[in-house]
Amino acid sequence: MKKAVLFSLWGGVVTPHLSQTFQKFEESAGISRGFIKNVIAKLGSENALYCLEKGKVTLTQMIPEFEAECQKVAADQGLSLPAQFSAQKLFSDVGQVEFNKPVLDAAAVLRRHGIATCVLANIWVDDTDQRDGVARILSVLECRFDLVVRSCYAGVRIPEPDIFTNALEKLAVKPQEAVWLDVDEESVKAAGVLGMTAVQVKDITEALKEIQNLTGIEVTSDLQPPSCDPENVSHGYVNIKPGVRIHYVDMGDGPPVLLCHGFPESWFSWRYQIPALADAGFRVLALDMKGYGDTTAPPDIEEYSQEQIMLVSKTNPCKFIGIPQVTLVGHDWGGALVWNMAQFHSERVRAVASLNTPLFPVDPKTNPMEKLKAMPIFDYQIYFQKPGVAEAELEKNLKRTFKLMFIASNETVYLSVPKASPNQLDCGLFVGSPDDPARSAILSESALQCYVQQFTKSGFRGPLNWYRNGERNWRWMCSRPRGKIMMPALMVTAGKDPVLLPAFATGMENLVRQHLCYSSIMLMPAELNKILISWLKETHQKASIPVHPKL
Amino acid sequence: MKKAVLFSLWGGVVTPHLSQTFQKFEESAGISRGFIKNVIAKLGSENALYCLEKGKVTLTQMIPEFEAECQKVAADQGLSLPAQFSAQKLFSDVGQVEFNKPVLDAAAVLRRHGIATCVLANIWVDDTDQRDGVARILSVLECRFDLVVRSCYAGVRIPEPDIFTNALEKLAVKPQEAVWLDVDEESVKAAGVLGMTAVQVKDITEALKEIQNLTGIEVTSDLQPPSCDPENVSHGYVNIKPGVRIHYVDMGDGPPVLLCHGFPESWFSWRYQIPALADAGFRVLALDMKGYGDTTAPPDIEEYSQEQIMLVSKTNPCKFIGIPQVTLVGHDWGGALVWNMAQFHSERVRAVASLNTPLFPVDPKTNPMEKLKAMPIFDYQIYFQKPGVAEAELEKNLKRTFKLMFIASNETVYLSVPKASPNQLDCGLFVGSPDDPARSAILSESALQCYVQQFTKSGFRGPLNWYRNGERNWRWMCSRPRGKIMMPALMVTAGKDPVLLPAFATGMENLVRQHLCYSSIMLMPAELNKILISWLKETHQKASIPVHPKL
């Protein structure tokens, strides 16, 4: 079986074929179509481009030489190059090339299934003022592939055998265990000679099918957005007051977006959003909320009132990290929090998005706990009220807890809503559930392990305490000014959520001015990313805040 | 003695008097000068502005009411307000107010000397589209003062006594231990009644002198930029390969700037730069370099070659944090590194600045170790070559080591350059130095403790290994393409540096294209910040990258 897949960067594998880039360049430079291809084809064995790719010179050093070669080819054709001809512009155009999205997706699937992924790139040291294009390409490749080999560092270029053998050595795989994909016939031959399985790419869909056959992994259908490996992301820690520390995961460069998870989750619950939002040009900060994971979990119930939690969240991104304004995205309890932040700390919030949790109106006349009791859908929240009871059940077997709680909407639900008094022994969420339930299709073994590890430290007391401030939150909110939310807001409802029903969002237009409501039946990661990114881009564009997407 | 100083936000204390803001507003709105002051003066006890400040309504809710009050005052004067009159614009203008820099500086000095600092602010919940002005004000205040009390959260406004007593309670000081500064006579009276020492500000310089008399702290002359408290900054950690973790301090929002320290230092060596650059609108990432502090310190010498260290630094900000391009600032060995990064990983570097360390030309004919031996100024580097020798001396008494090494240029130098063979017992940097040398004026006791703690973990082996790759670095650099550095570059020389002499920077114009050289005799933190910020702003402006300074 294959253990590694190596991709060629240019020309139709990781990036689309450069012929379009060349053609546009030729048009804008006023030279005949096919000229650049012609120059490259005529290059000898020790030409300027090869020296560049092998790192003997930098791009700035090489450009005059390349221009000279172009002049020569033109002269041979009896032509002279127009004044506006600029090899610098040609290389800068190449740096602006897009990615072949299906190939990036396929590489992500391979990686998730334990196949090592590698890009070999005939790419130079770009020291020109237009080097940000190459910087963007490298940044994406380094995030998406296990190994990136640049010819200018290796000192050898494709199709030289050493570039393959060097890469295989670093990947610790034998040639027979590796697949090579390129458009170029020569490199396919060279890889074949070494013993690799080489696929010459003519049509990318066909090539990906061949990868599927060779690896046995469905690289074109098993699509999920890239995830985060907790071992390989940047973890931030900040003390917001003596003895209280906030943990967050931090990725990307651009306007900040703060992700606030719900019950009973983790920063890790955003694993499919973090890389996607970072690639879209945002700096993503995914918090462990108060009481969770590596964030401090004080024992007292009062510490988990919305007022107290907002002090934490407000001072986290702002006071110590020194960010004046963030966009907030919350889910479940995190959704309730971001609506409150948008209302009571509006200065620090650029825009607000909530998943599943609508903004509820505050009724100063009715204690919300009375309302809860009248709605059987919220019985579990009544069960959560008595300290220690739900903790005991949920902490008993963490693995079982998460297997029972994280399921897809088409899988068997074992959770029961406890009708009985919380003092009765047979009462609980998991009464009658199997001791060793099946793990959901949406929860990988490593994700399950991650949740178990996250809750081993502080358990469920802090997380459950979020539910134990209903009356306190209500009284506090009644005491605060509560106007319409004026900032851009996004509400995403999920049709299959059995508790936070889409119907609860009805009437939100009375509470939020710039309200965008998106309803989904099955809120899958790829769909959610698309919604969030499109809303984030539009919101920042309207506010004239530049965003530089990498993908 | 006084334990706390409380400042009023508006009107001539932390911000300049708003009369200028009002005047400009009146001019642009086409209303008579003094109108706004007049409206405010005529407000009754339960007026719209007071309700806003006390958090009974948000700014959006209050604006129509305030406009009605303005209409009323205008009508009383027999006038009608022009069509372009907008109370929203008035509040937005207020949010754009600058800070009184001397007051911020004075507050920083007080804080450094252990006096609690607090701002009381009659400030509202700003939920308008122009709320980023207030966000910026709050972000600066929260970074610079120990406590910020907003009237809209406290439910009381200055001069109500409760706002003072609430603040004193939070600061845990008695009224007699606190000083209050305001322009407003009423608030000065109110604070006086409570037993506080109240200073009515007429001239800010005079007021600061009075603070000086009351606290005994020279708030106007002992000026240093604000520093970082390691306990109160955000710490980032990222694994760049199995078993190798990078630690960095992260502050601010904006284009990223990566700070690389020298020998034998720490992220903490940038403590006076981090808040200043963050306030100037940049995201600052201050690394613990390989071998230092909370970054992993592998034992092998080879791990500290420039090639290997660059792999660390390159992948740190880029690969896992997902930042495509950063501006690099390096000092001492960090300076050597950033020049190499600019040359060999130019794509990922937006611009490069080096303090003290010039870019040296590479001479492929002469082994640099031979050159070193010929220059007595570098004898200490010869002494550092033999593994274990300098480690033993430097690690023997960390406190003494840092007291001997971190000194101002006008203080006694005890370091000797060892002439003898490293095998001789009487050879060393500290031979003949006092056992308990005085601590330098530039090194506070807490800073000394911080350095000791940073080096307790990994000692000096890693840091010294940076010096043990001279030949390896040379060979490697000779093998790489080495063009002129094409990106914007800043070289700062320090006249009092006894080793990295300013003269070494001569001829750098042959190696760097966009070269700006700044020479300083005494490179003090405030001067350095000014140089760096002005260069950073100019560099990013030229590249059309927006920067939003907070100060």
From TrEMBL, chains A, B:
Pfam families: Abhydrolase_1. Homodimer. Its EC number is 3.1.3.76, 3.3.2.10. This is Bifunctional epoxide hydrolase 2. Keywords: Acetylation, Aromatic hydrocarbons catabolism, Cytoplasm, Detoxification, Hydrolase, Lipid metabolism, Lipoprotein, Magnesium, Metal-binding, Multifunctional enzyme, Peroxisome, Phosphoprotein. Gene3D superfamilies: alpha/beta hydrolase (3.40.50.1820), HAD superfamily/HAD-like (3.40.50.1000), Putative phosphatase, domain 2 (1.10.150.240). Its cofactor is Mg(2+). It is found in: Cytoplasm; Peroxisome. Its main location: cytoplasm. It comes from the Eukaryota. PANTHER family: EPOXIDE HYDROLASE. It is an enzyme of class 3 (hydrolase).
